[in-house]
Protein 1
Amino acid sequence: MRFDILTLFPNLFESYLSDSILKRALDQELIDVKFHNIRDYSSDKHHKVDDTPYGGGAGMVMACQPLFDCIKDVKKQNSGPVIFLTPQGERFTQNKANNLAANNKEIILLCGRYEGIDQRVRDQLIDQEISIGDYVLTGGELPAMILIDSIARQIPGVLGNEDSQGEDSFSEKFAGKKEYPHYTKPAEYEGHKVPDVLLSGNHAEIEKWREERLK
Ligand code: SAM
């Protein structure tokens, strides 16, 4: 799976991608993440990428020219959907992560900043708009990283244990519900005990106990 990230702040992604599961996925070439700094596409002599909003109001709006040029250029290298991260988008869910992973080999993610982007970019060049929840962040970089993480872990081989992805919250195995509580050794910690049933060795009873705790 190839992700192309369009952002003003590519460095923000560095630490998350340079450790743990996603690092391994990159090293094993199970995923590829390319960055495109929108500022590099600005034709302004000061590399300006934003301007004041028509109609007045607070803040700045990311302007058409750098975004049109950047998106058109990246589309030559990546034939997947162009997804704009925005609070006005459709709410991101496990189902959406599954569908994006199943139906695409390439995805382009556009991260907004400031008040957002000129509507004409959205009208002309964006295929999907996704929100990660009903709150406002300073930029689309964290939402893009969330999409990469949740989509990447659907790709066979990305998780160490192939089975573990099928046994998470929202999976078919749990009928779309959220997972039961986990415990590990020791059986008693500072007087807090692990439920007896989990130590019983009775698999049918353990399954029943877990099923009753799915939410
Ligand atoms: N003026 C916008 C509004 O009221 O909806 C918020 C702009 S926000 C400060 C800057 C950028 O952060 C957005 O263009 C978007 O790319 C990203 N962003 C912020 N919150 C987000 C969310 N909940 N989901 C996805 N992207 C978000």
Protein 2
Amino acid sequence: MSVRVGILGATGAVGQRFIQLLDDHPTFELAAVTASADSAGRTYRDAAKWRVDTPIPDDVAEMEVVETSPDGIADADVDLLFSSLPSGVAAEIEPAFLDEGYVVSSNSSNDRMAEDVPLTIPEINPDHLGLIDVQRDERGWDGALVKNPNCSTITMVPTLAALDEFGLESVHVSTLQAVSGAGYSGVTSMEIIDNAIPHIGGEEEKMETESRKLLGSFDGAELSLHDADVAASCNRIPTLDGHLENVFAELSEDPSLDAVREAMEGLESADLHSSPDQLIKVFDDDDPDRPQPRLDRTYGNGMGIVAGGLQRSATGLKYNCLAHNTVRGAAGASLLNAELLVEEGYV
Ligand code: NAP
């Protein structure tokens, strides 16, 4: 089966990862790339300040960037759109595509917490896709909107899902986030070199709310948030890619560290083209200084989660986890959701 796809916001940090991940994809064929009015009409090579560590695929380099509207992509005959637009822009533009019947797998934060929008990680809560039927009824559109979580949320949530069998009660997390998470022109070198910034606008709230939705339960009509309290503190540091997080979790049970490691490593991967073979890898006591962004962000082609430093703390457990923020945390997450949408017959 071949599905023609487009990328909204294709020239940005996440858009570039989409292009890299879609190169030679067995199901998706890239047929349209959109960006702002400044980029429309230019070739992709000319419009994008390419910073991904593989060359721009030749066929994409010569594609014309079109304006981000249903008219702009009308000639491309696509069935599915990936969205990596700034959230304010996405909030205005995504509904126009949904009204036209497109299926949109989106990274942007608008609507992630809407009651009728699935916020999905295929390995954790694939059943939440059932919200699409609720969404179509309520919004009256033929399309379907699926969101993936924020990059710092998706780094931590698979480890929390593994802990949930021991009664997850509360989570405190502190992040060390890479500069690519702020987008191509998000943080200037004058701000970030030799520095750390203890504030990322809106990020803490996203981690605190999205985690509870992802771990929540869906009864076929409504979604209930997980009860756990989540408190986050988010920091930007001068790494390029890969968010590292220090997690402190309180559980109602008292599992051994071996049982926790087994639960994390035993979490099932999804049987989809872009899934890693093993979703979470846990370093043991022989490697107390891992995971590290530069060494571990490409685990599972950037689609895996790496944990380590697992110990007991005064209030429960503590450990570190890491994921590639523009792959597992953004474009790869959206791509995996799209593969699930195809598998489940929504495309
Ligand atoms: P970015 O590097 O700033 O790229 C933004 C893209 O949107 C560019 O292609 C830009 O085109 C386009 N754009 C901007 N304004 C537009 C407009 N008015 N109309 C149409 N297109 C417009 O941002 P990013 O880091 O890729 O992030 C994209 C989205 O993904 C954001 O919502 C972000 O919050 C989310 N996200 C990012 C990450 C991450 O790690 N970076 C992780 C998870 C989620 P031009 O090049 O023409 O300006």
